[in-house]
């Protein structure tokens, strides 16, 4: 993050100015459950949920999986964007490597 818009200790993005913010996400995970995995990814703006992404149980066996989504938000200068995940059932481990990423682009 060359502009230091993401706080690396909290993983929170702060909008530098008002406008449209495009968010692209790619999440890579490994399921250790044979069936019934349910995963939610929540996008928060200023502490309130603005988007919920449900990743269905598309991986019936233990395996790697990935999920991508794009979202455009109207933001004001200083608005914060953060992500939270919830594993509702099954066992899912997130891959914290270069394959899991979140990209922010002011339009």
Q: Can you walk me through this structure?
A:
Helices cover 0% and strands 62% of the residues. It starts with 5 loop residues before the first strand and ends with a strand. A 5-stranded antiparallel sheet has the order 1-2-7-4-5, with no helix packed on it. Strands 3, 6, 8 and 9 form a 4-stranded antiparallel sheet that branches. A hairpin with a 2-residue loop joins strand 4 (38-45) and strand 5 (48-55). The protein has 107 residues and is mainly β.
Brief descriptors of the model:
107 residues, mainly beta, four-stranded antiparallel β-sheet, elongated
Q: How are the SSEs placed, and which strands pair?
A:
Blueprint: E1 6-7, E2 12-14, E3 19-31, E4 38-45, E5 48-55, E6 63-75, E7 80-89, E8 92-94, E9 101-106
Antiparallel strand pairs: 1-2, 2-7, 3-6, 3-8, 3-9, 4-5, 4-7
In short:
Helices cover 0% and strands 62% of the residues. The chain has no helices and nine strands. The strands form two sheets. A five-stranded antiparallel β-sheet has the order 1-2-7-4-5, with no helix packed on it. Strands 3, 6, 8 and 9 form a four-stranded antiparallel β-sheet that branches.
């Amino acid at each position: 993050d060359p502009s230091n818009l993401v706080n690396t200790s909290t993983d929170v993005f702060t909008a530098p100015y008002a406008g449209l913010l495009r968010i692209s996400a790619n999440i890579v995970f490994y399921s250790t459950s044979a069936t019934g995995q349910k995963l939610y990814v929540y996008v928060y703006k200023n502490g309130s949920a603005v988007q919920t992404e449900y990743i269905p149980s598309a991986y019936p066996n233990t395996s790697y999986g990935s999920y991508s989504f794009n979202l455009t938000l109207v933001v004001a200068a200083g608005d914060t964007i953060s992500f939270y995940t919830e594993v509702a059932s099954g066992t899912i481990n997130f891959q914290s490597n270069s394959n899991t990423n979140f990209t922010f682009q002011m339009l």
